[in-house]
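The freezer alarm interrupted the setup, so I double-checked each line after restarting. Inputs confirmed:
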Amino acid sequence: MKPFDYVRPATIEEAVQAGSMEGSAFLAGGTNLLDLMKGGVVEPQRIVDVTHLPDLSAIDATSDGGVRIGALVRNADLANDADFAGRFPAVAEALLSGASGQLRNAATVGGNLLQRTRCRYFYDVASACNKREPGSGCDAREGENDGLAVLGWSDRCIATHPSDFCVPLVAFDAVVEIAGPSRRREIALEEFHRLPGETPEKESVLEPGELIVAVRLHAESIAFCANQRYLKVRERTSYAFAVVSAAAGLIVEDGRITQARLALGSVAPKPWRARAGENLLAGQKPERAAFERAAEAALAEAKPSGDNAYKIDLARRLIVRAFERAAAGTPNPLPALPASPFAHSPEAAHV
Amino acid sequence: MTLSIHLTVNGAAQDVALDDPRVTLLDLLRERLHLTGTKKGCDRGQCGACTVLVDGRRVNSCLTLAASLEGAEVLTIEGVARGDELHPVQAAFIANDGFQCGYCTPGQIMSAIGLISEGRLDGDPERVREGMSGNLCRCGAYAGITNAVLEAEATMSETAKEAAE
Ligand SMILES: Cc1cc2nc3c(=O)[nH]c(=O)nc-3n(C[C@H](O)[C@H](O)[C@H](O)COP(=O)(O)OP(=O)(O)OC[C@H]3O[C@@H](n4cnc5c(N)ncnc54)[C@H](O)[C@@H]3O)c2cc1C
Ligand code: SF4
Ligand code: FES
Ligand code: FES
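Predicted 3D structure, all chains:
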């Protein structure tokens, strides 16, 4: 690890100021940042430790009946907050399917949104990587790319955003609150991450010094709580990143879907809201044929970026299963193996 | 730049001077405080050998910057027994053959103590396996580990009930 200065600001204003200086990085749980620093992938000159800032660790009700989650709330604490998990069970399930018990105790809300890709060439400093070193090339294009993007990628970068948490958040219209050097602002999570285009090193809309202070979910999204699921296909049962994941939510009245929500994880450089799939479901009966049409529409623009055409098919099937599980009702309590598409349940009896 | 932090390790309050902010909690424990029970496996958050409790919660000490722990309470494997009386999780690991070489064991035990205190196991082996998935064991002692955690959970909730009566 390269030497760095360590500062521990006492207020958000001080943090933003220190964060605006060239070479600064915010430290939250450290579970991604320290890993990247140990590998020499990122080399900040100054670590701005935000973990001691006041007022960023609460889960509050908002005046409109929604939820405001402070940026320093630990992933485990949010997932295990009974009130929150009752309103947003797919968000809790996604959190519990990520990383390990130890990591979830350390990882924060803000850090989870800003975690970097797991593309192996990004991690390997001997490889060419436009994201790590703009203009150096992309060794993933001709390399081991079976886990990489099928949506939203560019010739410059085919990496995926690996977060589980962000997938149901983007499905249920989360908003990110940001404090910056000159102003506070907020932006829909759907607009928060950027597609790579020509500049894969720019991953979010954050400007230097800008700090995530909270994530908000609206009251309207709570209406999906009875019929929602997050499902995650992994290469092993637990403690693995998603190959493909899906968050699905339904509002069903008198046997018809009135609204649907759908987002995909680990298929694109950002958590991927699949509105085309949602739109097809309004007015339909919650049945397999409708879910299959939605899945088709959700992946209509997908194309392989390498040895990963299988992910397109996998995503379609996972969408169908996620909607079928959502239609069957949110499980309570959450299953022992969160987000497992193979967990015991009637429709998985054949696996 | 020298930085000084105040923290409690296994019940003893300490002021620690850090000559370099790069020191992780794992290196602080092993190299500076000579508490070598906590093990370094991967040093990258992937194996769980370095698990300790910080403010009662299990974390990977290899991904925790010591400088950020101002005011924290740290519990390591050296601090869990009461004199000669083993912690119930330690005793259960012995009774259930929860190890072979023993390298992963301090991390497994600290992780199990954290997991049991999280309070959601309900005697379900599936929940134990899922909850312990952040601790790898190259000897593959998983069956014994799962049984040990289940047994310790049962003993500890029995003891808690008796204490409440
Ligand atoms: C072995 C392993 C397995 C994992 N498995 C999964 C998994 O299955 N699913 C999954 O989703 N994740 C997984 N993760 C990733 C984990 O979820 C992230 O590392 C974690 O969420 C990051 O949060 P943090 O608070 O530790 O962030 P940090 O590491 O502290 O920070 C990450 C980045 O965010 C920036 N940052 C942090 N907070 C703020 C803020 N408030 N405002 C602005 N910038 C900020 C930092 O500067 C840094 O660039 C895994 C990680 C490991 C090590
Ligand atoms: S896919 Fe993106 S992150 Fe991976 S090597 Fe190419 S440029 Fe780097
Ligand atoms: S040494 Fe910390 S997780 Fe492996
Ligand atoms: S007992 Fe040898 S690694 Fe677990």
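Quick read of the result. The longest strand of chain A covers residues 244-253.
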